[in-house]
Amino acid sequence: MTSVTALADPVALATPAFIALVLIEMVAVRLGARGDYDWRDTFTSLTMGFGSTMAAVVFGATIVAAYSAAARWHLFAIPMTWWAGALCFVLDDLLYYAFHRSAHRVRWFWASHVIHHSSQHYNLTTALRQTWTGFFSLSFAFRLPLLLIGFDVRLVLFVAGINLIYQFWVHTEAVRRLPAPLEWLLNTPSHHRVHHGSNPRYLDRNYGGVFIVWDRLFGTFEAEDDAEPVRYGLVHNISSFNPLVTATHEWVAIFRDLRAATTWRARWMAIAGPPGWRADGAGNTADALRADWLARTAAAE
Ligand SMILES: [Zn+2]
Ligand SMILES: [Zn+2]
């Protein structure tokens, strides 16, 4: 039996490059490049990245076992070839879009993903600010269709790693715009800055991982407007650099809301409703904030 580790782990191989690029960006920002570093924020981001790696060690075997179990039900026997790798990469990115969109729209998933958005700064270390609790929000389950179609477990893990590596470099303010065809096709620093924005016009936009065309197709694309600088972070920012608070604050809020809920609808919405939902209707969901912004811009015209 071949081991699932037979393909090299691309993320482990890329880690020295991550560190080198962070150092280069820090120096560039010192020399005047656009960007913003705060040492407490950087410490939190790096600690979250380290903890996320530890969580992958703890839960990795279970995830691989789930993938291997799903692979036994495969529809096709897809060979390990270049074309299969390319197809798997594109389909994986489409599933990433579905995962990422639900991670912003369903609070149980958001409780894990919010960690990545909890920084009010935007630099390469923000890319490393990753969740510790992705396993509990079932983020791995979004890739199960690839195994059921018939892609090899090793190939699925490999393309997932490449996808993650690609998303590292878009977390920078130093790169403004790429040539137009690339901005049309790919997730770029400009598109992903929008994704990290808490301005109403930028909320819940640009979910794409590698390709931004999914957002163009499914109506969630918003271009960065240089006249409206991105305010990084959350609608309600956490006022803490404590990694434990960062990792758990939304889970704590869910359980607090569950205890306070008096109806089954409120309990359901506390888990599966959009982030910001409140039983009294006064909640700041992204849809409500965006609709409010659209109404204000229409009124101003
Ligand atoms: Zn996100
Ligand atoms: Zn990001």
Structural account:
The protein has one domain (1-301). Helix 1 packs parallel to helix 7 (153-168), helix 4 (107-113) packs antiparallel against helix 11 (243-260) and helix 11 (243-260) runs antiparallel to helix 12 (264-272). The chain has helices spanning 10-30, 39-71, 82-105, 107-113, 124-128, 144-149, 153-168, 180-185, 189-195, 213-218, 243-260, 264-272, 286-300. By secondary structure, it is an all-alpha fold. It is built from 13 helices and no strands. The protein binds zinc ion (ZN) (2 copies). One zinc ion binds at residues 100, 104, 113, 116-117, 195. One zinc ion binds at residues 116, 171, 192, 196.
Q: Give the oligomeric state.
A: single chain
How many whole angstroms does the radius of gyration measure?
20 Å
Q: Quick one: biggest sheet? A: none
Structural class: mainly alpha
Poorly predicted residue ranges? none
**Kindly, what is the distance between the CA atoms of the first and last residues, rounded to a whole number of angstroms?**
66 Å
Number of β-strand runs: 0
SSE string, helix = H, strand = E?
HHHHHHHHHHHHH
